[in-house]
Amino acid sequence: MSRIETDSLGQIEVPDDAYWGAQTQRSLINFAIGQERMPLPVLHALALIKKAAARVNDRNGDLPADIARLIEQAADEVLDGQHDDQFPLVVWQTGSGTQSNMNVNEVIAGRANELAGNPRGGKTPVHPNDHVNRSQSSNDCFPTAMSIATAQAVQTQLLPAIAELSGGLAELSARHMKLVKTGRTHMMDATPITFGQELSGFIAQLDYAERRSAPRCRRSASWPRVAPPSAPGSTRPTVSAKRLRLNWPRCRVCRSSPRPTSSPPSPAMNR
């Protein structure tokens, strides 16, 4: 079973059980190559951005409060992993990640409309572009999502793995510090060392890796999330330059985002 969704190119059939809309469906057809799906951490990070943007747009008076609440509620479900099967797109798409950005917009809007008592999908009362993507562009959302996903991976996967491996090697090193063995330089015997000393070299390498990774995690929390440039079709409302500087978005989106890592998000220095 299918339903009809529309975009600027016209009508297209979308599966009834899908929350996504026309642009996601067109990407499935136009980029039917490879099996490499867009990583879920990047998509969840995009959902986090949508939630924060809805909160800021509501605060600025650029989005009705009821629409903002629906977007936040649907985004929270995405962040909880409830709709992971709704992101079918592969990494083979346009360079700015436009299709995946719209996939997230459409899924959040489709679920928000269902939460509002309407059929799944569609554009009423929540529009995927005019509301979910308001004041945004894939050109800044996607790099920001990559930064968020990177910081989360470093903190929740890489650093704990380094600590666990280093701790295990430290125990072995202490246990075998007096066990003498032949040292090796390439294919030749060298000065004898203890097995514990040998393991200490690996521990030192892991320590260096941890020291290099932790600052990069903090730098990944510096987000390029900014308002898109003025352009035909831009969903950013027309505002004065002064209001744009004071009220949008870089700092406010960062401050409004639920913290994805222990490093607080901040706007990029060259914003």
Topology at a glance:
Layout: E1 2-7, E2 10-15, H1 22-30, H2 40-59, H3 65-79, H4 98-115, H5 128-132, H6 138-175, E3 180-185, E4 188-194, H7 195-220, E5 222-223, H8 241-247, H9 250-256, E6 266-267
Parallel strand pairs: 5-6
Antiparallel strand pairs: 1-2, 3-4
Helix pairs in contact: 1-4, 2-3, 2-4, 2-6, 2-9, 3-4, 6-7
In summary, what is this structure?
The chain is built from nine helices and six strands; from the N terminus they run E-E-H-H-H-H-H-H-E-E-H-E-H-H-E.
Characterization of the model:
With 271 residues, this protein is mainly alpha-helical. The protein has 2 domains: 2-147 and 228-267, Orthogonal Bundle (Fumarase C, Chain B, domain 1); 149-222. It is built from 9 helices and 6 strands. The chain has helices at residues 22-30, 40-59, 65-79, 98-115, 128-132, 138-175, 195-220, 241-247, 250-256; strands at residues 2-7, 10-15, 180-185, 188-194, 222-223, 266-267. The strands form 3 sheets. A two-stranded antiparallel sheet has the order 1-2. Strands 3-4 form a two-stranded antiparallel sheet. Strands 5-6 form a two-stranded parallel sheet. α1 packs antiparallel against α4 (98-115) and α2 crosses α9 (250-256). The longest helix is centred in the middle third of the chain and has 38 residues, at 138-175. The radius of gyration is 24 Å and the shape is elongated.
Features:
271 residues, mainly alpha, Fumarase C, Chain B, domain 1, 2 domains, two-stranded antiparallel sheet, 9 helices, 6 strands
Characterize the biggest β-sheet.
2 strands, antiparallel
Runs in which pLDDT lies below 50 for 5 or more consecutive residues are 226-235, 237-251
Strand content: 5-15%
Spatial shape: elongated
- Indicate the percent of residues in helices: 40-55%
CATH superfamily descriptor of the largest domain:
Fumarase/aspartase (N-terminal domain)
Kindly, what is the distance between the CA atoms of the first and last residues, rounded to a whole number of angstroms?
46 Å
Give the domain tally. Answer: 2
CATH class of the largest domain: Mainly Alpha
Structural class of the helix and strand makeup?
mainly alpha
Order of helices and strands: EEHHHHHHEEHEHHE
What is the radius of gyration computed over CA atoms, rounded to a whole number of angstroms?
A: 24 Å
What do we call the CATH topology of the largest domain? Answer: Fumarase C, Chain B, domain 1
**What's the pLDDT, averaged over the residues?**
84
Number of helices: 9
CATH architecture of the largest domain: Orthogonal Bundle
Sheet with most strands: strand arrangement: 1-2
Give the beta-strand count.
6
